[in-house]
Amino acid sequence: MSINSENDIAANLQIGPTDQGMVRIYLEGNGIDLPLDFDPEEAEEIAEELQAAAEAARLVGNAKAPKKKR
Fold it and tell me: Could you tell me the residue range of the domain that residue 51 belongs to?
C-alpha cells in the first residue's frame, strides 16, 4: 500500500502529551493499538511536515478545481 492508495480501514487518532514529557500519537482501529511517543522536538518536526503536506494538498486541490467562468 502506498500513500496514494485508498482503503476502507477506519481508525481513531488521538494526539496529546504524556506524563513523561513526550508527545503521543495514538492510533486505534481494527485490531491495531499503536501508541507512538516522540520528544517535543520530533513532534514539532512532524507538525511542520503535516503543515507542508497540507499546503501541497491544497495546491493540488486548487489545480484540479474547475475554473469559474466570468
Answer: 12-64
Where residue 45 falls among pLDDT bands split at 50, 70, 90?
A: very high
| Rounded Cα gap, residues 55 and 10, in angstroms | 24
Query: Has residue 58 been placed in a domain?
Result: yes
Letter string b/e over residues 23-62, b meaning 16 or more CB atoms within 10 A of that residue's CB: beeeeeeeeeeeeeebeeeebeeeeeeeeeeeeeeeeeee
Three-state SS letters, 42-59:
HHHHHHHHHHHHHHHHHH
Task: Give residue 70's pLDDT band: very low, low, confident or very high (50, 70, 90).
Answer: low
Cell of 4: 496514494
Is residue 34 situated within a structural domain? yes
